[in-house]
């Protein structure tokens, strides 16, 4: 077998020699340091491009104390994560923002209790500069693991655990879940519906609780039999809708706390011979196009900008990592709640 000769990798010394500067000057430019005259910096950047130099990440980390990597931690198993388009949209937004700032995304999923130790060790091991954590459930240990790891963290969703709610520095991004739910139920009452049911999400998650509270804001005296807990999946929507029809066959409106659950509810209504929206008006939540526009009829829903929420999460984290981002017009370093609005289609 003949020995192959591979081209040697360009070094920082070669960049410095090509640019006619010292190694220290080349290093400062490559690693984003200040204090280098613009003319010299341009020469270094030109040498980097000409030689095809790629900085050694381990060496760069020693200089900058940054990994340029962010952990995205989702408190859901693989089967749920890869089947729910909500997560794809949110991670797409995160990825776009991180890529724009030359940061890598490291995806960590929680399949079971044994994974918490693995995730905790990784976060504390100096591999990433910060963490974006979402789809948390009550009593989830992830916030405490991130705190112990000592890394900046931004949460997707309003914190619902007492320790973080007391921490005014806890950063999170969420939509106006309660206001969006009120809009959905007002729409149904405005159509003249009087027996309106609610399929909630898992009530160990703050988004579900807030949407249920919005439902009750408009219908404070709603029959408890008209409220069934789902799980943000189509199958969960089917089960909840079947239970509601068995309990209250005269219902004429349904607010489902997600589009996926609404799609499952729609299938059961059709199977039971109910016309939508003539017999039962139906409103979802999320406005995930691949769900809401492909149902029959197309789904009336409350829109939240899922991808933009992902971008905002990443932007808040990058701001907390780099105070120099405090430029005029920059996003304030505080939690963000984005607006929602109703998208009227044919199911309500």
Q: What sort of overall outline do the alpha carbons produce when their principal axes are compared?
A: elongated
Total strands? 12
Counted by DSSP, the helix tally is 15
How much of the residues is beta strand, in percent?
A: 15-25%
Low-confidence stretches: none
Structural class: alpha/beta
Following the backbone from N to C, one meets helices and strands in this order, namely HHHHEHHEHEHEHEHEHEHEHEHEHEE
Distance between termini? 72 Å
Give the strand order of the largest sheet, numbering strands 1, 2, ... along the chain: 2-1-3-4-5-11
- As a percent range, the share of helical residues equals 40-55%
* Largest sheet properties: 6 strands, parallel
- Alpha carbon gyration radius: 25 Å
Mean pLDDT: 88
Sum this structure up briefly.
The protein has 348 residues and is an alpha/beta fold.
Structure description:
It is a single chain. α1 (12-19) crosses α3 (38-51), α7 runs parallel beside α8 and α12 (234-247) crosses α13 (259-271). The chain is 45% helix and 16% strand. With 348 residues, the protein is α/β, with parallel strands linked by helices. The protein has helices at residues 12-19, 23-30, 38-51, 57-64, 78-83, 85-100, 114-124, 142-149, 162-165, 177-190, 206-218, 234-247, 259-271, 289-292, 306-321, and strands at 69-74, 104-109, 130-134, 153-156, 171-175, 196-200, 227-229, 253-256, 281-286, 300-303, 336-338, 341-343. It has a 6-stranded parallel sheet, with helices on both faces. Strands 7-6-8-9-10-12 form a 6-stranded mixed sheet, sandwiched between helices. β4 (153-156), α9 and β5 form a beta-alpha-beta unit.
């Amino acid at each position: 077998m003949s020995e192959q000769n591979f081209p040697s990798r360009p070094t920082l010394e070669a960049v410095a020699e090509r640019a006619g500067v010292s190694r220290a000057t080349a290093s400062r430019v490559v690693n984003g340091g200040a204090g280098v005259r613009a003319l010299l910096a341009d020469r270094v950047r030109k040498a980097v491009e000409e030689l095809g130099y790629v900085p050694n990440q381990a060496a760069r980390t020693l200089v900058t104390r940054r990994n340029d990597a962010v952990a995205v931690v989702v408190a859901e198993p693989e089967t749920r994560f890869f089947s729910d388009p909500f997560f794809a949209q949110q991670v797409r937004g995160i990825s776009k923002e991180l890529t724009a700032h030359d940061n890598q995304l490291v995806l960590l999923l929680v399949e079971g209790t044994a994974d918490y130790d693995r995730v905790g060790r990784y976060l504390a091991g100096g591999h990433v500069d910060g963490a974006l954590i979402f789809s948390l459930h009550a009593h989830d240990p992830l916030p405490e693991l991130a705190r112990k790891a000592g890394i900046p963290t931004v949460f997707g969703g309003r914190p619902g655990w007492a320790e973080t709610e007391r921490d005014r520095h806890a950063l999170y991004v969420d939509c106006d879940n309660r206001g969006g739910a009120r809009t959905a139920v007002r729409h149904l009452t405005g159509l003249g519906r009087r027996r309106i049911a609610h399929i909630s999400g898992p009530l160990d998650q703050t988004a579900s609780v807030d949407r249920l509270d919005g439902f009750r804001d408009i219908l404070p005296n709603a029959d408890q039999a008209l409220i069934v807990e789902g799980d943000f999946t189509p199958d969960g929507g089917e089960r909840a809708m079947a239970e509601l029809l068995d309990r209250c066959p005269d219902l004429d409106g349904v607010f489902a706390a997600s589009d996926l659950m609404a799609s499952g509810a729609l299938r059961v209504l059709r199977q039971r011979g109910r016309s939508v929206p003539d017999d039962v008006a139906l409103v979802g939540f999320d406005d995930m196009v691949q769900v809401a526009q492909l149902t029959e009829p197309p789904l009336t829903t409350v829109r939240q900008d899922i991808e933009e929420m992902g971008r905002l999460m990443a932007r808040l984290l990058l701001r907390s990592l780099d105070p120099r981002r405090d430029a005029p017009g920059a996003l304030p370093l505080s939690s963000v709640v984005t607006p929602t609005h109703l998208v009227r289609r044919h199911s309500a």
